[in-house]
Write a structure and sequence with these properties.
Layout (H helix, E strand, L loop, with lengths): L2 H19 L5 H14 L4 E11 L2 E13 L3 E6 L6 H14 L3 E6 L5 H4 E5 L9
Parallel strand pairs: 3-4
Antiparallel strand pairs: 1-2, 2-3, 4-5
Helix pairs in contact: 1-2
């Protein structure tokens, strides 16, 4: 499955969940629901995955934790907040740079519509991929 198919599946699942459940649940609930949806589409989903940070040749295990890693290619950061705060985008961009992955999805289920709560972020770096 290519990266665009994966991100489309994530976006479609997020929109469908938001239509069904609305914006009032906890972040952890949306995350679990999204995992169920994505796995039902045959995607590999890792939850609350700890990743290392490598700096000056020193590896720091469990340096940061991403919400979801889909098909070892896309990071999904799940939120349930009333606004799209700039820190959410900054956080996801940092995770992309640190992991060496190219694409992430910010899914904020707390917004009135998922159109307002979805953001696809592309990163040009690919120097330390997760495998």
């Amino acid at each position: 499955m290519d990266i665009n198919d994966i991100t489309k599946a994530i976006i479609d699942a997020s929109i469908n969940l938001h239509k069904k459940f609305g914006p009032g649940l906890l972040e952890s609930i949306y995350e679990k629901l999204l995992v169920i949806e994505l796995r039902s589409k045959g995607l590999l989903v890792e939850e609350q995955k700890w990743l290392p940070l490598i700096h000056k040749g020193i590896k720091y295990d469990n340096a940061y934790r991403i919400d979801l890693l889909v098909n070892n290619q896309v990071i999904v950061e799940v939120k349930s907040a009333k606004a799209m705060e700039p820190i959410f985008t900054n956080q996801l961009r940092s995770y992309l740079v640190l992991s060496g992955l190219n694409v992430g999805i910010l899914a904020n289920f707390g917004m009135s519509t998922m159109k307002e709560g979805l953001k696809r972020i592309a990163n040009n770096f690919n120097n330390n991929p997760i495998h």
